[in-house]
Backbone:
């Protein structure tokens, strides 16, 4: 079983900022920026080639909601989306990276501190 399936079924803890029947959104354990999060489908979908349109649409709907949360709680100013398939995909379970932008360079905070800011 891949590591994201284990996070989804609760075997491995995560700093989860949102979840519903279709997706779980949690903070990346090794963030590039504060608020770097991953949107992951709950069913095991390997990559973009394996992805159905309904789930994809839902993931992008949730992306826009997470962008609002990031703007409100962390005062971000935009977003880069990254989604690896094949050779560069480390975890073999579809995930969309949300990497927010800041107007000034930010020191990386502990993931737990970012989680508290996002959920308080
Ligand atoms: P990929 O290269 O597959 O697109 O990226 C995988 C991402 O998953 C990396 O940014 C890595 O830090 C993150 N990651 C790997 N293992 C874990 C984990 O156990 N928990 C969390 N929250 N993120 C993980």
Residues:
């Amino acid at each position: 079983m891949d590591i994201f399936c284990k996070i989804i079924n609760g075997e491995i803890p995560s700093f989860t900022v949102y979840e519903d029947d279709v997706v779980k959104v949690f903070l990346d354990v090794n963030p590039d920026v504060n608020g770097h999060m991953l949107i992951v489908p709950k069913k095991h979908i390997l990559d973009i080639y394996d992805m159905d349109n309904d789930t994809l649409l839902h993931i992008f709907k949730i992306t826009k909601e997470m962008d609002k949360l990031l703007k409100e709680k962390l005062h971000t100013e935009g977003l880069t989306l990254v989604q690896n398939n094949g050779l560069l995909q480390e975890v073999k379970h579809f995930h969309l990276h949300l990497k927010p932008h800041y107007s000034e360079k930010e020191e990386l905070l502990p993931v737990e501190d970012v989680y508290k800011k996002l959920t308080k």
